């Protein structure tokens, strides 16, 4: 076995795992990723997976996928399937170790009976509200349930009848008999089983009592022989309860180590909140490219490599913090810069007619596919008398420091010729709708033999050859860095950004894109990275802008170095 075989710096979890192996507390490393199938995975889960699968791999161990499917009311096969797809996409593999907590329902029920027999669990007739009331607060101890001292026989009988379906939902629970005065509220006689007459996505109607997550989680780890149960910080206060169950049952106990949850600015990472965005129609689905879900990020144009790089860079810490979304975008740019083919696309077209270019003539100019990767080669792009350029690259009255196209000025057309603006055509409202231009045939390839210079190079497409496209531009989903920052009585939805999506129709892209496949990602020169959406299959091309070229993170880093 290799110890800590990785380029990763040794964070506190890796140090702890290494110590356990050195001290012989464990002779192997076995972790698990335990999603509840009640929503799609998000970037926070990516962090957890990089830790769970990543650490197992580094120490020559294994990582299981286990669905913690203990709540039939909130769970669905749609989620079970999407979660598996997303884990594979991110590049992790559970091999043949796919498990479900529901596989252990019978075993968990036996554990419950064991605890009853040992006098450590009882059937309680208090309602959910009463249980909450009796639980006390952080500052006051709880009160004992009047049903706490039922006999073992009564408890065994009542639990068997709960399981047999004799009682309605919510009428009884099975609770652990621990300590109603404990400083840790999780230990104040927590509920182990509740009655829910609902169909489970895997066990159907076989059960009407379901274990609480807290009663299932530790035992599931134990059954699977997990050595290191790595989870986010909110489970820290639950660890004493997991350990209490495992010790009371006298079964193997994994070592649980908690790490900080990932929070990313301008978005929310909670399945409950993401579900509200979907159900409320605030986004178009779990895979809307504005969502921080893995399926949304994928559709947006994120690559698994960029997401894993992001998780490596944020590292593993013990304290919750907020990560700047600009870092995630930076990781994507770094990855795509190396790999994405360059193409030309005009988002807001302005027609250009080159007066001195022969009508009907077409030239193929050579264009570089990726300056970062010579092996990507070149392609040809057709050039002709009528072109589209970007409206933004022209000003009739250019302000100071605007160096692009304007009346009387000359610019370079990328990979082609120098172009001079000799006139403008306006519509009835006085808006410029067309430019009359001339080109210099001696500048083919982009340089003037007489050595004269231009201040700007702009992209273009040939009007007769370009392919029509729609483009979706995305902005932050929320206007506040912390969407939960709201006044009393309001909730995070108040902070939604009303302008998070802008759809551009009437865009034109170079003809090489006509045959591209959904999911393909390109750099549109000077504009950003764009991913062909699956909606493209329904007709014309639809591109999602994954990220623009302006790197805010690089700017933040520079400022930090200076400051
Ligand atoms: P949510 O609040 O989004 O529903 P959860 O913790 O309930 O998240 P689970 O499906 O139970 O979601 O999570 C599976 C694993 O992913 C757990 O081990 C959990 O600790 C981890 N995880 C979930 N969200 C984050 C996050 N934001 N950062 C790091 N790890 C996370
Ligand atoms: Mg959960």
Record keyword descriptors for this entry.
563 residues, alpha/beta, Rossmann fold, Ribosomal Protein L25, Chain P, 3 domains, 13 helices, disordered N terminus, binds adenosine-5'-triphosphate, binds magnesium ion
Describe this structure in words.
- This protein is of the alpha/beta class and 563 residues long.
- The chain has three domains: 248 residues, Rossmann fold; 165 residues, Ribosomal Protein L25, Chain P (Beta Barrel), CATH 2.40.240; 115 residues, Ribosomal Protein L25, Chain P (Beta Barrel).
- A seven-stranded mixed β-sheet has the order 12-25-26-27-23-24-13. A seven-stranded mixed β-sheet has the order 21-18-19-20-14-17-22, with no helix packed on it.
- β1, α2 and β2 form a beta-alpha-beta unit.
- It is elongated, with a radius of gyration of 31 Å.
- The N terminus is likely disordered.
- The protein binds adenosine-5'-triphosphate (ATP) and magnesium ion.
- The site of adenosine-5'-triphosphate has 15 residues, from α2, β8 and α9.
Give a short synopsis of this structure.
This protein is α/β, with parallel strands linked by helices. It is 26% helix and 23% strand.
Second-tier CATH architecture of the largest domain: 3-Layer(aba) Sandwich
Distance between the termini: 45 Å
* Strand ordering within the main sheet: 12-25-26-27-23-24-13
How helix-rich are the residues, as a percent range?
25-40%
In CATH terms, the superfamily of the largest domain is: HUPs
Strand portion, in percent? 15-25%
